[in-house]
């Protein structure tokens, strides 16, 4: 099968385009509440607006919850104290007419087949069977890998099961040449951004071995634990409330270690360029 080029996520890190490699598994990862889903939703919006079909499999949230988040990101602005509640109110009470354009754009993308949101309870083999039916010019996003199971087999440990799931997803990506982006959580060792590492994925470091690329995420609005040797280094990184720190922890076909900071509005759900690069501010790569 002819190999496709990588697909742009719509993000740039240190001036270079961040891509999801075709025929490979890309894993955005972070602790709970650090923007994994938001990152994938923003990637999906960037892709569908570029005309790339997206299949978003949600294991964590309902379709209506994902719909609301997509519409808020498409709107791109604050439309109330709580954007999600404002979107819900729009459908119940037809309030906030300013949301109409975002709602129309969302359903146009859905009805055209460009954006496909699936609330999923498929086990890993069933999910991969569905991916084989996805158009070859599409991108698949899965939220998230540690919610997948192999119901037909028994394993002594969850680690063994996740290893097989990750390899199954990797093989599916290779065989279809579809980029698969599957979020994952860090384990409890990752209490600040300096401790992010590709091998520190919760329940299974073997997920790392199957991945072509791993992208670490840290939400600057969250509390972090740090020892006295880490305090100054973290302060110099410029991670503050309202930002997401993003670092390429592994890239099989590219250089790893690049890092950048992005604006993140948790109410709207948008994640975008902040106007400067970590390469200009004493970035994470200098602390390796």
Could you explain how this protein is built, in words?
With 288 residues, the protein is of the alpha/beta class. It has one domain: Rossmann fold, CATH 3.40.50.300. It is built from 8 helices and 12 strands. The chain has helices spanning 36-49, 63-75, 83-93, 100-111, 124-131, 158-176, 206-210, 228-236, and strands at residues 7-13, 16-20, 25-30, 54-58, 115-119, 139-143, 180-182, 184-185, 213-219, 243-251, 259-265, 270-277. The strands form 2 sheets. Strands 3, 4, 5, 6, 7, 8, 9, 10, 11 and 12 form a 10-stranded mixed beta sheet that branches. The protein has a two-stranded antiparallel sheet with strand order 1-2. Helix 2 (63-75) packs across helix 4 (100-111). The longest helix has 19 residues, at 158-176. Mean pLDDT is 87; it is low at 275-288.
